[in-house]
Amino acid sequence: MTWPRALLMLHVFAVYGSDAATYVFDDSAGLGRTFDGIGGLSAGASSKLLVNYPDEQRSQILDYLFKPKFGASLKILKVEIGGDVQSTDGTEASHMHNSWDENYQRGYEWWLMVEAKKRNPDIKLYGLPWGFPGWIAAAPQDPYVDPQQTATYIVKWVQGAKMHYNLTIDIVGIWNERYYNATYVKSLIQTLRKVLDVNNLGHVSVAAADGTWDIADGMLEDADLAAAVTYIGAHYPSTVTTDAALKTGKQLWASEDYSTFNDNSGGGCWARIINQNYVNGHMTSTIAWNLITSYYENLPYPRNGLMTANEPWSGNYTVESPIWMSAHTTQFTEIGWLYLRHGNGVGHLQSGGSYVSLVSPDKKDLTIVIETLTQEHSKCNKPLDPYNVSAAQITIQLKGSFVSITQLQPWHSKPGFGSADRDIYFEKRQPLKVTNGQVTLNVGVDEVWTLTTVSTGNKGSYPPPPPSKTFPLPYQDDFEGYAVSMEPNNFAQQLGSFEIVAEGNNKFIRQMVLQQPLAWWPNAEPKLGRSFSVIGDHSWTNISIKVDARITPVNGTSGVFLAARADKAGIALYDTGGVFFYVSPDNSSYILSSDLSKTQVVSTGPVKWRKGWNTIELRILGEMVFGFVDGVEVVATRAPTEPTNGFAGLGTTNWGLADFDNLYIT
After folding, report:
1. In this structure, how many other beta carbons lie within 10 angstroms of the beta carbon of residue 397?
2. Domains of the chain, residue spans
3. pLDDT of amino acid 384
4. Of 99, 392, 416, 587, which has the highest C-beta tally within 10 A?
């Protein structure tokens, strides 16, 4: 049912002595669990493009995410501890590519945590590895990692955050979504706890196991394991938990959730799980992947962020619906508030939907959040059980510490799902008068309401960002404008790790990975044995990519390649098609292939390669493809008929060092 527009204007009104369904909000019998905050997750290379946005728009975006009383006002920032491993939409750089190597200037998560802390000094920081550099393996091809080396690797990251950025990490995990093995997980967690404590990091909590609830069974049987874990974190729990998890008495988190297209329905999903993760599953924190869609549109899971910012060349971004659905909870609560008990301020509406209420520790403030999202308009990537919602009149009865409240401030959202509907997001309404502890209001379908004693909510805004533009061509980069160890702008590294290196007065990018990284779950890391980084617009069809390349004499790769029309990336790399021009100085030959794995060879032949820098170029024009080395045409043949468009890219034919400079795309 959709309420008539005229009635919506008078949507909230007090009714005394009505026959509405009554819901009691009372703390007399005690309180529920402690609220741990709503958060966002930057991982899987999901924030890659944000760092090189123009300063003005980048600051605005960060305000919408982190600034208190402005937008999403997030309380937790969870980030990937980079491991040089394909972790969804790309790889994130490790602080230790090799056992002898430490560098805390790599990647963009440090920068993101610093910016979040600038805006909200109280935000909690949470780090979790998705995968690891290959040297951490307990033994070659071992599916697990060495507990001592892994714990040391994580602790060095925590120490690096403090030493180089004055960031205090609050929470760490062990390994994202790795299949559960009780013996191994216990060993790793207990080792991590010990290494943290020995290094005076007792304040850092451990969350585990960032997958299913299975660890709870082990914790019930093992007091030492239980003592080492502060939070039990599960991913995409569909709002439910297990009896074992509840019996542990630990705080339960949806430590990764959402992962849903961020249109109005996606916003509905986010609003529903924020509420119902506690109503159904007693989860005290929900963390959204991803924090922000700041990766190319044609990588896996497009627009799965709380907002979208994937055009640094234009400065365009979009404040999506989940930002304001977050605000309904985050702007009127703080970490450390307490939920009321189920049945006394937490539960399901008889007409469908749910409600939660949270109270400040001093019991001076109360916040109630009500959602009535229909299943059709709140579809999550991880489906929930079927349910129905209808419009209703509800009466709120305040008792206990809340009986003296005389007014509540309402904030209202109602996404539009019809062509004639307008979107209503986070609108402040006139205060509601509470008489004798009671107020009654009409609630329609597909709505979110916050009723609160907190008076500081605010719908922040900035002038519209610049208009959207396509990726600029021609495109060139000599890599001179970067700090050493940075990743080059606009490159989305998919396998391996590419960073800025200086040699004399020259800067260039170097591929750094020397061996196969350890995947975050089986088959997530394609065993292609090579590096690959993409750039540009997936619609590109007739394209030329040219770069200077050099293979280092120590730990060097056996060859390099250029790519065009690369149709897939991210965790779909196994099946990537396109045009790939491989040049191998070791045997003075090239291979032209129609797939990344080199199984579909189009042409082969000889090349001449000088010691040091050489220029390679891949050019596609209509039905023809051309390859050049140092300006000499070495191949001219028909292009593969499929795919017809895709990214440009470059990489190495196997693990090992290689350098690239003076990129030019047209």
Report:
1. 16
2. 7-30+343-452, 36-337, 475-665
3. 74
4. 392
3-state secondary structure of 188: helix
Q: Does 475-665 carry CATH code 2.60.120.560?
A: yes
Please confirm, yes or no, whether 177 is among the known catalytic residues. Answer: yes
Give the mean model confidence (pLDDT) for residues 374-379. Answer: 92
Using the predicted structure, report yes or no on whether residue 527 has a pLDDT greater than 90.
no
- Per-residue pLDDT at 387: 86
* CATH number corresponding to 36-337: 3.20.20.80
Residue 116 in this model has a pLDDT that exceeds 60: yes
Residue 100's CB: how many other CB atoms inside 10 A? Answer: 7
- Cα angle 568, 51, 487; round to 5: 65
Please say whether the beta carbons of 510 and 130 come within 8 A: no
**Per DSSP, which regions of 467-558 are E strands?**
475-477, 492-495, 498-503, 506-511, 531-535, 543-551
CATH superfamily, domain at 7-30+343-452: Glycosidases (3.20.20.80)
Among left, alpha and beta (phi > 0; psi -120 to 50; other), residue 353 is left
Give me the mean pLDDT over the 412-419 stretch: 88
One-letter amino acid of 113: M
**Distance set, CA 659 to CA 486, 606, 615, 662 (Å):** 14, 22, 12, 11
Residue 600 has what pLDDT? Answer: 94
Taking the C-alpha atoms of residue 344 and residue 357, their distance in angstroms, rounded to an integer, is 9
Pairing of strands 658-665, 543-551: antiparallel
Please compute the mean of the pLDDT values over residues 198-210 and round it to a whole number. Answer: 98
**What's the one-letter identity of residue 582?**
Y
Q: How many whole angstroms separate alpha carbon 275 and alpha carbon 284?
A: 10
Instruction: Give the residue from 538, 552, 573, 563 showing the smallest Cα distance to 640.
Output: 563
Tokens of 403: 């009986």
Nearest to 81 by CA among 153, 187, 139, 165: 153
Cβ-proximal residues to 553 (8 Å cutoff; 6+ apart), any chain:
none
Q: Report which secondary-structure segment, H or E, holds 253.
A: strand 251-258
From the candidates 115, 256, 320, 617, which is the catalytic residue?
A: 256
Q: 357 with 340: CB under 8 angstroms?
A: yes
Q: What is the pLDDT of residues 458-481, one digit of tens each?
A: 999 999 999 999 999 999 999 999
If you search the block for the tokens 């970067």, which residue do you land on? 482
- Please, where are the H alpha helices in 199-347? 215-221, 223-228, 243-247, 264-281, 321-330
CB–CB of 189/218 below 8 Å? no
Name residue, tokens 């760490």.
172
Per DSSP, what are the bridge partners of residue 125? 77
Residue % of the chain over a pLDDT of 70: 95
Question: Strand ranges (DSSP E) for 552-596?
Answer: 560-566, 577-584, 589-595
CB distance 540 to 565 below 8 Å:
yes
- Six-digit token string for 276: 């119902």
Note whether 7-30+343-452 and 36-337 share their fold.
yes
398-to-19, 352, 438, 448 alpha-carbon distances in Å: 17, 21, 6, 20
| Length, in residues, of the chain | 666
Q: Strand 632-638 vs strand 624-629: parallel, antiparallel, or unpaired?
A: antiparallel
Contacts (Cβ under 8 Å, ≥6 apart) of 8: 414, 444
